[in-house]
Amino acid sequence: MTISDTRPDAGDRAAARRPSRLFRNLPSKIAMLPLIFTAVVVFLGGTIWTVVYSFTKSGLLPRLSWAGLDQYERLWSSRKWIVSIENLAIYGFFSLIGTLVIGFTLAALLDRKIRGEAVFRSIFLYPFALSFIVTGLVWQWILNPELGLQNVVREMGWTGFSFDPLNNPDIVMFGLLIAGLWQGTGLIMCIMLAGLRGIDEDIWKAARVDGIGTVKTYIRVIIPMMRPVFVTSLVLIGAGIVKLYDLVVAQTSGGPGISSEVPAKYVMTAMFGGQNLGQGFAASTMMLVMVVIILIPWAYLEFGGKKHG
Amino acid sequence: MKLRIKLLSATAICAATTAGAVDLEVMHWWTSGGEANAVAKFAEAWTATGNTWVDGAIAGGGDTARPVMVSRIIGGDPPAAFQFNHGRQAEELIEAGLLLDLTDVAEAEGWADIVNPSSLLDACTVDGRIYCAPVNIHSWQWMWLSNAAYENAGLAVPTTWTEFAESAPALQEAGLTPLAMGGQSWQQNGAFGVMALALAGEEAWLSVNRDKNAETVMGPEYTRVFEAFGAAREFSDGLNVQDWNQATAAVINDTAGAQIMGDWAQGEFAMAGEVAGEDYSCLPGLGEVAILDTGGDAFYFPKQDDPEIEAGQKELAAMLLSPEVQVSFNSAKGSLPVRGDVDLTSVNECTQKGLDLLANGNIVPNGESFLAPDTISQLNDLMTEFWNTPAMTAAEVQEQYSDIIASAE
After folding, report:
1. pLDDT band for position A103 (cuts 50, 70, 90)
2. What letter would DSSP give residue B160?
3. Contact criterion met (CB < 8 Å) for A61 and B96
4. Is residue B133 a contact partner of residue B117, using CB atoms and an 8 Å limit?
């Protein structure tokens, strides 16, 4: 009873002091306007526009002539799309595990206060300064059987050596993966290293006093403490996986055949090569759906869980 | 730095306008040696008129270049002129009213009388108005063979596809790749198109491409084509290249026996100093059915607000079809001129074969003028999968091919 009495009263008083919540901190809200505008119009508006037009027969130019679910039916009956999804799953799984493991291992090694740390750090981070197009071309040459690795090993005497992933449909995704890891692990290593440096020295001292081994300390104590760093890394790696496109274009252009196609490339080819915007929009909508399916449960666990706990 | 460039270009524009000349940015995808040499002829002729040619070359072929051009046109920053292939690629841009109507230029220059075959001008015409300037005739229907490769293997140079297929194992035993094939999907689908016209004949080919008759795809003529294409897959083992000119280079270096590629490949042979008939041979229609498909390149001119630029665009359009430019450009590119009334300066054996077929009317329009880019891109995907998946059978592909044709617009 008392509660229901005081509440409107408190509200009235608040209203008398501050006429509207809308005008609270007005300058900072004005400063936020461009960002709000960008978020609503560019991100949300663009997404809605794309989804709407994915139900149309848009060709080279967007047109509002409805096609129902035709574009989606065609998409899911296309072998190329199925292959693209499978490839992304393979690349995504190995890229995620590989980047985290290699990135953390390198960071842990550098964290052992070795000599010339700055040099190694620069060397490992350097590939990140290159674009995916350059990375793709470099690795295309390295993996080229006549010019690159295979040739070098053969000239050293192992004439039977054969390593030609880019021309073998079964393992071509691993050829892409090598280049992707080479490019991406450096950044993750740096983030991990920053995380490791943030760990209090006393933790290490305590572990030593308790007689816990170095490896065990890392796995049991340090890694759980670095959870926020791992989340950051995960988001960065995940974004890199979904937008995988330029590496494929530079290294294999989807070949041999369609064996290294990826969803983003499917979208680009449909929209611009095939002059079929509707089909490209349908494919990009499916990409969004896939991301959302993975993201929502994770975001719920990560951010929603804390409030309750 | 950026400011300086802006200032420089601003002064350049001022200087150009005061001189009464215009800068026209021309976008195209002619970047291989022979092609770049050919496009330089256009630039020279245009510069000679006192105007400026701003070269907007995009490497990577039409599939890479077209999206860039289209996005610039839709994005409101169109080039003054751009290259497309004849056919349905620009259809929607014309319908949306984004391209300049060239009908008055065409009438003044009498294009209707000089352009041969007239189907080239038809491909530029929408609702009786002309929107593009055809510059050359290209045909896919060629196979290029290295004479030295066959000599080294102790074989006679084949004169038909059947002979070629029979001699292929012997060539492989000699350590050579019988058929050079680039890894890009358009090359594999293109080669299939050549084999379809050559092995299934004109009637079946038109039925599939023009009338979109899916039953013909399942018929006996096309069955033969799918089987021949399936058998040809292993002929290309041992050569892994992407671009078409790298595949042509393998024929030029005599490490590969042959390549199925349009007549633009001849520009590469010419650049390498090879002589038709001595160093290399050519088989129009694979030596089976000598019919050429007549596609080619055309220039389109996006609408611009500036009347001065528009006048320049029309001047350029007229120049592209003028006799001198037609001769110098097509001689360099290895293509045939769109005018029936000019003689090429240096006609080699292969070009002569093409000119004879053209004069006799042994021609069909090209596949791109019948099929929408969407359909072509689906066929590209299918044929490249077939080419690279040894486990895929001809019958499976035939089925899927007929589905695509049945749903084509």
Report:
1. very high
2. S
3. yes
4. no
Q: Does B240 touch chain A (CB under 8 A)?
A: yes
Contact: A275, B183; criterion CB under 8 Å:
no
For position B39, what pLDDT does the model report? 92
Going by C-alpha positions, the residue among B370, B198, B184, B353 that lies closest to residue B287 is B198
Note whether B39 and B28 are within 8 A (CB): yes
Q: What sign does the CA torsion over A242, A247, A249, A251 have?
A: negative
Element (DSSP H or E) covering residue B42: helix B33-48
Give me the domains of chain B, ranges plus CATH numbers.
Answer: 22-137+295-355 (3.40.190.10), 142-290+371-406 (3.40.190.10)
Nearest to B387 among A145, A257, A270 (CB): A257
What top-level class would CATH report for the domain A79-308? Answer: mainly alpha
B138 strand-pairing partners: B295
The residue of chain A with its CA nearest to that of B75 is: A61
Q: Which residue in the set A255, A270, A273 is minimally distant from B388, CB to CB?
A: A255
Q: In degrees rounded to 5, what are phi and psi of residue B264? A: -65, -20
Asked if the bond preceding A256 is cis, omega within 30° of 0, the reply is yes
pLDDT tens sequence across B193-226: 999 999 999 999 999 999 999 999 999 999 999 9
As given in the structure block, the two tokens for residue A34 are 């461009």
Partners of B142 in the β-ladder: B284
Tell me the one-letter amino acid at B77. D
3-state SS assignment for residue B174: coil
Helix (H) or strand (E) holding B83: strand B81-85
Distance between CA B106 and CA B318 in Å, rounded?
A: 8
Give the distance from residue B388's alpha carbon to the nearest chain A alpha carbon, in angstroms. 5
What pTM did the predictor assign?
0.81
Among the partner residues A60, A259, A272, nearest to B93 by beta-carbon distance? A60
Enumerate residues 372 to 401 of chain B having a beta carbon within 8 A of any beta carbon in chain A. 372-374, 376-378, 381, 384-389
Whether the Cβ atoms of residue B267 and residue B33 lie closer than 8 Å to each other: yes
Best mutation target, B70, B73, B229, B385, to test chain A (most A CBs within 10 A): B385
**Residue of chain B nearest A256, judged by CA positions:** B388
ipTM of the complex: 0.77
Q: How confident is the model at residue B18 (pLDDT cuts 50, 70, 90)?
A: very low
Say how far apart CA B67 and CA A278 lie, in whole Å. 15
Asked if B408 contacts B372 with a C-beta cutoff of 8 angstroms, the reply is yes
- In angstroms, rounded to a whole number, what is the distance separating the alpha carbons of residues B178 and B231? 12
Please check whether residue A276 touches B, CB under 8 A.
yes
